Amino acid sequence: MDIHIKPINTFAHAEMDALYTMIFHFYEEYDPTHVITKESINDTIIHLTNHPESGSIQFVYDAENALVGYVILIKYWSNEYQGYLLFIDELYIVPDKRSLGYGRTCITLIEKTFHDIQALALEVSPKNTRAQAFYLQLGFLPNKNKTFIKIKY
C-alpha cells in the first residue's frame, strides 16, 4: 500500500479544518466524555510547531494524495529504553479507510521514517479489543507497568 505522511501545513485551511474534524471524531469514538476544544487542539499545534524536537502532527495521505488520517507523535528520551521513545499520542484513520491496511502501513512508515528512536509506544482503550489485537499483530506488547496520571488544571 502506498501512503505517505507529512507534517501539517497550518496555512492550508481546508486541511486544518479536516484535522479539527478528525480530532473531534477521534475523541467521540475514543471517549465521548472527554471534552476537547478547538483551543486545546490549537495549543497542541502551536507547541509542536514551536518545538519540533518534541514531536509533530502528521497528515496521512493515500496514493492519490487524498487525506485519510492523522497521527500525533511525541518524542522524548527514555532512560528505561536507553534512547528516544516515540509515543503515538493519536492515530486516526477515517472510518471508510479502516481495515484496508492504512493503519498498519502508517506504523511501518513511522518506523522507517524516524531512525533515531529506540521504541514506539501508544495507549489503547481497555474496551477497544480490536485495536489491542491489531497492535499485538504489529509487535507491540502490553507494558509491564501500569500508567498513572495526575492531571493539574
TrEMBL record:
GO molecular function: protein-lysine-acetyltransferase activity
Keywords on record: Acyltransferase, Transferase
Pfam families linked to this entry: Acetyltransf_1
Domain N-acetyltransferase: 3-153
Key word Lipid metabolism present: no
InterPro entries noted in UniProt: Acyl_CoA_acyltransferase (IPR016181), GNAT_dom (IPR000182)
Known EC number: 2.3.1.48
The protein's name: Histone acetyltransferase
Originating species: Cytophaga hutchinsonii (strain ATCC 33406 / DSM 1761 / CIP 103989 / NBRC 15051 / NCIMB 9469 / D465)
